[in-house]
Input
Amino acid sequence: MRSARTPRPWSRPTPTPTTCGAPARRPSRCGSSSCRTTPARSSSTGRPEMGDELLPATPPMAGLDVERLDSLRDLDPGDTTYLDRAIGNFQVNSAEAVAVIRDAVEAEDVATVKARAHKIAGSALNLGVPRAGEAARAVELAADTGSVDPARPLLEELADAMAEGRVRLLAYQATYTA
Output
């Protein structure tokens, strides 16, 4: 018998994927009553199959983690809105971040350098752009010294890596929008 002070084992139920891609606990996402009761089938790859809506795996592309990008693309099979929005945000935010970081280095604003480099590093790594993410992490770690001076020589690599990342993400996006 369990004592009153012993915590009960607890686990969260795993949501079942549905035909609309919405987790079973949120069937109202698409408004279809059939998505409440018809779970999606899983293929041998472990990804949900949604008829012809699931896009094929992208062949390797230099400078990109296409496995990561494909997983983001397939979060909602047949609807790439999330990834398209994330790529669009990266197009704008990465260019803006480089400019803000350069200005912050010139102003010797260590806190801004660290914060913006950290934020854009996370975005780049989440989107499968490792060179851009690592360049931003290098700037962030350089600013961790308490001075912007170690970050100065890294700014050109940061700008180049972000520009390359923007181009590569658009090339990836073209693989499923063409």
